[in-house]
Amino acid sequence: MIVANRKNVQEIRDMIKGHKRVLLVGCGTCVTVCLAGGERETGILGSALRMSLKLIGRGEVVVDECTIERQCDDAFFDAIGSHGAEYDAICSFGCGVGVQALAERFPNTAVYPGLNTQFMGLLESQGVWAEKCAGCGNCRLGEFAGICPITRCAKHLFNGPCGGSREGKCEVREDLDCAWQLIYDRAKNIGSLDKLEEIALPNDWSTALDGGPRKVVREDQCIAGLGPKA
Amino acid sequence: MATYEPLILAFCCHYCAYAAADLAGSMRLQYPNNVRVLKLPCTGKLEVNFILAAFERGVDGVFVAGCLEGGCHYMEGNLRARRRVERAKVLLSEIGLEPERLEMFNLSSAQGPRFAEIVTEMTTRLAELGPSPFRPARGAEEGVREMTKQAEAHLTDEAHGCVAA
Ligand code: SF4
Ligand code: SF4
């Protein structure tokens, strides 16, 4: 899932303070699970912002909240419906995708991010989320015993480890497990150490972000005649 | 402000602080009468939004009173509450309100005198801090009543479950 965390109250307050009516929109999917932008967290930030605005003499700014099922799908914005037009600014508590989707849906309304979107990751233990995938567009986990060196090796090495791997820890950050130690251990467990004997080829980064935003198209699913949006 | 009397909302656990407050009453202990008690089935029920909602309605201070550490009926509800209180304090500082207006206490149901002491301690502290900048003109009493009603409705609502007394 997409993992995010909240911005500082003052930072959000300063983004929205020039507006008269602000709608905070929470998202009921990934960011609810990572406790950053669901109904409860959006409510907390709503309370905090109203109080913070009052303290700087901007108490007249209206701050309302609503949380929709999902922000990364235009269909769910119907739940906001015409209410959106009653506000001159929207602050999204979804990931960066949600913020941009709201900006597309409400072209004449200022849209701000309430969260800092961090990464695609996994719950490691209660309250702790860890990055696992950088969305490189050409998944090579099969070569690396199911552990992603792009995301989890601090130097993104395809042929690791580097000389700084010490007792399973990475030289870049001591709280970090060396991804290549993990790859080696797991390869050993699953009997695929021989794969590591081969030199891994450089990645084809043309499938990654470097060439501008990517698009996934399923022609068979596109509505006939409409095709993918240009 | 000579007439300022701080209004305090106390989130009290049914098993300890609430009973302690009761005991303080039957022991006829004297303590400031400006505290309003909101009973929770366990302080683990407390969420940060309850605390902020209270401050937004204009109470001058909030305290959360749960069982002694190790004595929670639900194992660790009071430990979770403590961490949530810490988080709420961080938010209060970001808002610009003194985090000292909020505190977590632990006591057992037998500690009536301790309950009276806590109320006195918080009252003194809040008297020094002065009234909340969010006090509505008509006073915060109504806000607290409204919140208590909402919380009671929430707790007795089957969908949310409630502890058997
Ligand atoms: S190889 Fe690419 S797609 Fe696969 S986990 Fe790593 S970043 Fe993600
Ligand atoms: S120590 Fe391991 S994880 Fe760290 S940079 Fe070197 S190979 Fe990568």
Question: How is this structure best summarized?
Answer:
Helices cover 23% and strands 20% of the residues of chain A. Chain A has 230 residues and is α/β, with parallel strands linked by helices.
Can you characterise this structure?
The complex is a heterodimer of chains A (230) and B (165). Chain A is of the alpha/beta class and 230 residues long. Chain A has 2 domains: 2-119, Rossmann fold; 134-201, no CATH class. In chain A, 23% of the residues lie in helices and 20% in strands. Chain A is globular, with a radius of gyration of 22 Å. Chain B is of the alpha/beta class and 165 residues long. Chain B is 44% helix and 14% strand. In chain B, strand 3 (61-66), helix 3 (77-95) and strand 4 form a beta-alpha-beta unit. Chain B starts with 7 loop residues before the first strand and ends in a 9-residue tail after the last helix. Chain A binds chain B through residues 8-10, 40, 43-44, 47-48, 50-52, 54-56, and chain B through 47-49, 52-53, 55-56, 91, 94-97, 133-134. The complex binds iron/sulfur cluster (2 copies). One iron/sulfur cluster binds at residues 153-155, 157, 160-162, 164-165, 170-172, 178-180 of chain A.
Mean pLDDT of chain B: 90
Main sheet: strands, sense, barrel of chain A: 4 strands, parallel
Number of strands of chain A: 7
Query: So, CATH architecture of chain B?
Result: 3-Layer(aba) Sandwich
Ligands bound, unique: iron/sulfur cluster
Shape of chain A: globular
The largest sheet of chain B has its strands arranged as 2-1-3-4
CATH top-level class of chain B: Alpha Beta
Task: Return the CATH topology of chain B.
Answer: Rossmann fold
The total tally of domains of chain B equals 1
Determine the oligomeric state from the structure.
Answer: heterodimer
| SSE order of chain B, one letter for each helix or strand | EHEHEHEHH
Strand content of chain A: 15-25%
Shape of chain B: globular
